[in-house]
Fold this protein.
Amino acid sequence: MDTRVKICGLKTPEAVSAAVEAGAQYLGFVFFPKSPRHVDVSTARALALGVPVGVAKVALVVDPSDEELERITGEVPVDMIQLHGKESLERVAEVRERFGLPVMKAVGVSGPSDLQALNAYGMVADQLLVDAKAPKGADLPGGNGLAFDWRLISKRGWNAPWMLAGGLTPETVVLACQMTGAKQVDVSSGVESAPGVKDPARIRAFIDAIRAA
């Protein structure tokens, strides 16, 4: 199975090494203080500087201000910005133009009515992250370990490349790819031993499962 993998929410050199050695194509760093995966700018910079060329470094932000983005992109050598909040179509286009980096927009899905947003954001973002919609009142917009009904997006396509997220694990990722046709997947809580604590064995198991399929 030729599927690209993003390991998100990395906080330690050990977790970064495990993801790189297992063969991840994208590494995600979370700049959102409410998340157990949050890293500050100096930590993220140190981690990102150790990432080999060819592995994309992604900054996950939630409804960021320009000042916040300037601080992150000015200090951390990131290759992509992931907008994971309630950013409008206009804001996505603005961030893309202003910061000169590819933008991935996360869109939460729980039912058929959410699919129209994917069409719209696909017109302004470089990539889409198709994620499970966070439950009402949740502190986190993603990383909640929830999946959605994959049949909703089975063999669908949008105006931009897309990545499947939401509750994926080493045990479910192959079925998820088969049901949706996803060529890219994103995992965070599914490769952890505790919230925010990446498990190198589960990272390897996740990518090995995809390779073996």
